[in-house]
Specification:
It contains five helices and seven strands, in the order βαβαβαβββαβα. By secondary structure, the protein is of the alpha/beta class. The longest helix is centred in the C-terminal third of the chain and has 20 residues, at 153-172. It starts with 16 loop residues before the first strand and ends with a helix.
Length: 173
């Protein structure tokens, strides 16, 4: 019989990637908690929660995050444009996870180990705002094959981070 691994006996190597998540008005507690867990799973360096009246810490978020909000550094900022400007001046590529006229599939985008990446993710109903999309270096999307043209923000973040970190690991060797 095969035994299930747990937190204290996993075989995964811990690694940090030069990726920062910037959340554009993401405010659902379940999504915020999931984003913390996903960020921890993929070795993300930091999360910014941007927008007015975003309640990062809540009971629902804490249940979903399962203490990862105590591990992953995060900041709350009202003005996302200031965060993006700071990250850009620090040498980050500003990448939007959004379907746009010029977005390319994440699987067809090349990510280099030299890149510092700020991945912008949008809110649950409107996505990334137009004022922020004009600040991105590039926009990426996840190919979908059903009739819907969007998916949950936390789910999309997990898929995108899987592909990005996979490429960074391959290109590192």
């Amino acid at each position: 019989m095969t035994a299930q691994l747990h937190h204290d006996n996993t075989i995964f190597v811990k690694k940090k990637f030069p990726i920062t998540l910037v959340c554009n008005r993401v405010n659902a507690p379940a999504n915020i908690g999931s984003i913390f867990r996903i960020a921890d799973s993929f070795g993300i360096e930091k999360i910014y929660f941007c927008g007015e009246d975003i309640a990062v810490i809540s009971k629902r978020m804490q249940r979903t995050a399962r203490a990862t909000h105590e591990i992953i550094p995060y900041e709350q900022e009202d003005q996302i444009a200031l965060v993006i400007d700071k990250l850009q001046s620090d040498g980050y590529k500003i990448i939007g996870l959004e379907i746009t006229q010029n977005s390319v599939p994440v699987s067809e985008t090349h990510f280099s180990t030299d890149d510092k990446i700020a991945l912008i993710i949008g809110d649950e109903s409107q996505g990334i705002s137009e004022e922020i999309l004009i600040k991105t270096t590039k926009n990426i999307h996840i190919n979908m094959y059903g009739t819907n043209s969007s998916m949950n923000v936390a789910t999309a973040t997990g898929i995108a981070l899987y592909e990005i970190t996979k490429q960074l690991m391959i290109n590192e060797n």
